[in-house]
Amino acid sequence: MTTGAEFSWSIRVYYEDTDSGGVVYYANYLKFMERARSEWLRSLGFEQDRLLQQEGIVFAVRRVAIDFRHPARFNDSLLVNSRIKQLRKASLTFHQQIVRKGDRKLLVSGDVQVACIAQQSFRPVSIPPIMLSRIPDVV
User: pTM, whole model, 2 decimals?
Assistant: First the structure.
């Protein structure tokens, strides 16, 4: 769901997402964030495989800063909130938060910078104008 410049995506914690203590393994939060960014792109009308085929671009994570506050557990229903914090010529920085739906407790927050790169050269390239025209205003 997109509300202005924020996009929210729901996820359920499965057994496979947890460690032996029954809490979400830390690296899986990054997967949840990745899925939310992919769904955000899809909500704007862009499929990553088509961007590769038609535009010759991919988005690659360049930098991550993450703060783990509270654990999520097996079977929790989570909401991943994403908004663009910074838009540059060849990159986007997202601020993402993962909250537990039941009590709205903030579990994880972080900033993820993704770079737009040419598939052939792996060099930064400008984000295509068609994409820029559909990206909500940065707040």
Answer: 0.90
Contact status, residue 127 vs residue 93, Cβ threshold 8 Å: no
Annotated catalytic residue: which of 17, 19, 76, 137? 19
| Among 104, 62, 67, 52, CA closest to 86 | 62
Place of tokens 């506050």: 69
**Predicted confidence (pLDDT) per residue in 59-68, tens digit:** 999 999 999 9
Q: Where are the alpha helices (DSSP H) in 1-139?
A: 26-43, 48-50, 129-132
Q: Is 19 among the residues known to form the active site?
A: yes
108: how many CB neighbours lie within 10 A of its CB?
Answer: 23
**Class at the top of the CATH hierarchy for domain 2-132:** alpha beta
Tokens 């360049």 belong to residue: 62
